[in-house]
Design a protein that fits this description.
Length: 415
């Protein structure tokens, strides 16, 4: 409401004159620079109306805002300001930046005396906001240099060879993470609202490759690389319009929990959203931090045997060996020797000659293979054999595989 005192002469009229001005938050006069999505805003005056409008590209106009005088009300004169579309603001670092409009109004009393005043309207800037839930993209070491069409988005070759299936590359649309608000993003233009942020050389916390730290570097406007401290390209991040692609080029260290182990198993996913910014039409930006995580599935070496190793032992030798190679293995039976001295109840295997491996994505090491008896529950595992009519159960006792007959009975063999 415009407060009006018409004085002793009584009410006359309130009407619009032609003086409109716009000021930014530093009180700079920006009337001549007023724009909406880079289109010049022209303010025209009509009876009882200010109209801010832009050209529609043909012969017409599109309203951006209006201020209309609505007539007398108790204590003054009514007006209505209506905003139809956004206005370009000037300071990208101030996401609530005001533009102040002043509309000049003329008041007359019943005998024609005049006075002027202004109506001030403040239009605050709008900024984009992050939306949606965090998304996790999972890539597989198994697929390194082994999947069809690998490195479609990357520029670097895979440096490891995985064993298995899956994908070492994932893409995602960034539009799902941003509400651009009133200032929008002009989809009909070639402008890209997303950019890769230059955070300098950023070292990933807790993520290594072959024991080396990984640093993310910006290569150009559309590419980031994760580089190990020994110079390997471990991964690439590529921005293509509103799509972001992560391409794994080399292995990521895991903790040794198996083929299906993910980085997330030990809480070590890494956030690539922090390297992306979204910017609306008049320059307000927001980071996509904590919106896109990368998880990496482990690869394992494969172990194969070139042949089946077979050894023989004879019950005849039970209790009859002069020098028992297993000194702590007390025989519980005594056999009848038929062909001494060739009988034995002990056999040994050289596993190194019959076992070979493919290292997979985690690469060969100089460490020789180690061999262990598989983990067995404390209650044992039942075999398909019997001794003296009693079931034989397998136990892992201090790294030895022990087979016992009955419920915790005597040892009948030790490997």
């Amino acid at each position: 409401m415009i407060e009006v005192d018409f004085g002793d002469n009584g009410p006359g009229d309130v009407y619009i004159n032609s003086d409109f001005q716009a000021f930014d938050h530093l009180n700079n006069n920006v009337t001549a620079d007023l724009k909406s999505q880079d289109r010049e805003v022209t303010v025209v005056v009509e009876p009882d109306l200010y109209r801010g409008q832009v050209s529609d590209g043909d012969d017409g106009f599109i309203d951006i805002f209006t201020l209309e005088l609505t007539g007398p009300v108790e204590g003054g004169w009514g007006y209505l300001y209506t905003q139809y579309d956004q206005l370009d603001h000037y300071d990208p670092d101030n996401t609530n930046e005001p533009i102040n409009f002043t509309f000049e109004i003329t008041v007359s009393d019943s005998d024609g005396d005049l006075d002027t005043g202004t109506v001030t309207v403040t239009v605050n800037d709008d900024a984009p906001t992050a939306t949606g839930d965090i998304k996790t993209l999972t890539v597989h070491e198994d697929a390194l240099d082994s999947e069809s069409g690998s490195d479609a988005s990357g520029t670097e070759p895979d440096l490891s060879i995985g064993i298995g299936s899956g994908t070492d590359e994932q893409s995602i649309s960034l539009l799902q993470f941003v509400d651009f608000g009133a200032d929008e993003w002009p989809e009909e233009t070639e402008d890209n609202p997303f950019t890769l942020t230059d955070l300098g050389e950023t070292t990933l916390d807790g993520i290594t490759s072959l024991g080396k730290t990984i640093t993310v570097k910006k290569i150009d406007d559309n590419h980031l690389q994760g580089e190990s401290e020994d110079g390997r390209i471990v991964f690439e991040i590529t921005l293509d319009g509103s799509n972001l692609t992560f391409d794994l080029d080399d292995q990521i260290d895991h903790t040794g929990l198996g083929d299906d182990e993910l980085l997330s198993t030990t809480g070590n996913t890494f956030d690539i959203g922090r390297f992306v910014e979204a910017t609306d039409y008049d320059g307000d930006s927001i980071s996509l931090t904590s919106k896109i995580d990368i998880d990496v599935e482990n690869d394992l070496p494969t172990i194969s045997t070139s042949s089946v190793a077979t050894q023989y032992v004879q019950e005849d030798a039970l209790g009859n060996e002069g020098a028992d190679p297993a000194a702590d293995d007390t025989d519980s039976s005594t056999g009848n020797l038929e062909d001494p001295p060739g009988d034995t109840d002990t056999a040994s295997f050289d596993l190194s000659g019959s076992v070979s491996t493919l290292p997979g994505a985690d690469n060969p090491t100089d460490t020789p293979l180690s061999y262990n008896i598989a983990t067995i529950a404390d209650t044992g595992v039942k075999s398909s054999y019997t001794s003296n009519g009693q079931e034989i159960w397998y136990f892992n006792e201090s790294g030895d595989l022990v087979a016992r007959a009955g419920d915790g009975g005597n040892a009948t063999g030790t490997v």
